[in-house]
Amino acid sequence: AQTVTQSQPEMSVQEAETVTLSCTYDTSENNYYLFWYKQPPSRQMILVIRQEAYKQQNATENRFSVNFQKAAKSFSLKISDSQLGDTAMYFCAFMKHATTGANNLFFGTGTRLTVIP
Amino acid sequence: DAGVTQSPTHLIKTRGQQVTLRCSPKSGHDTVSWYQQALGQGPQFIFQYYEEEERQRGNFPDRFSGHQYPNYSSELNVNALLLGDSALYLCASSLLVRGNQPQHFGDGTRLSIL
User: Fold this and answer.
1) From A43, which residue of chain B is nearest by alpha-carbon distance?
2) Measured distance CA(B81)–CA(B52) in Å, rounded
């Protein structure tokens, strides 16, 4: 079974500063995908960034980057130049590789991030 | 380009009743997954539909059932509602043939059981 752990229930950061959200996971799979999703009060789950386990290079998406440590089963999200609009719940998610289609996502319990003006 | 749409936005039911939630996938998507998100928790996978059949299922009782129509839209049905079924129900869609692509989520239906 796959488990995803987010050990930081809440975090805060000053506007324009950098913050790192932690995520660890447990799996016996070798081929899988990791995601960070953002859920603002509007409730919609928005994809922030995606990492393929077979890629050693860490994914980046504008101000968002990850530190993927496969051996340690760690997948942290770094948000640079934090903006007020980054205030949201952030969920780390795991997905096994599928030969067709997409398998289901396993989510962590989330980290509530507040960006302070 | 229409995203994933869910209806209704909010719903209030009493214990023992039955409820149907609806989802239209993102344009061009053919696979629909349903998740339950209890307050303060991450979403948990209920089941996934493709070609009008249940393709995968999570650890949820038979009270939770679903359906997918030829136009790819989907319904989630919950019978004999319990207080513990109060949650945000999220629908997500993807395209099967593209494989391993991120799922796109709707805004969810907030279900409250009294």
Assistant:
1) B107
2) 25
Tens-digit pLDDT profile for residues A59-96: 999 999 999 999 999 999 999 999 999 999 999 999 98
* Residues pairing with A38 in the sheet: A46, A90
A3: distance to nearest CA of chain B, Å? 12
CATH of A3-116, one of 2.60.120.10, 2.60.40.10, 3.40.50.300, 2.60.40.1180: 2.60.40.10
Task: Quote the Cα angle for A23-B5-B109, to 5°.
Answer: 65
B111 contacts B11 by C-beta, under 8 angstroms: yes
The answer to whether residue A2 scores a pLDDT higher than 90 is: no
3-state secondary structure of A69: strand
Find the CATH number of the domain harbouring B101.
2.60.40.10
Rounded to whole angstroms, how far apart are CA atoms A82 and B57? Answer: 38
**pLDDT tens sequence across A4-22:** 999 999 999 999 999 999 9
| Chain B interface, best mutation among A45, A47, A61, by max B CB count within 10 A | A45
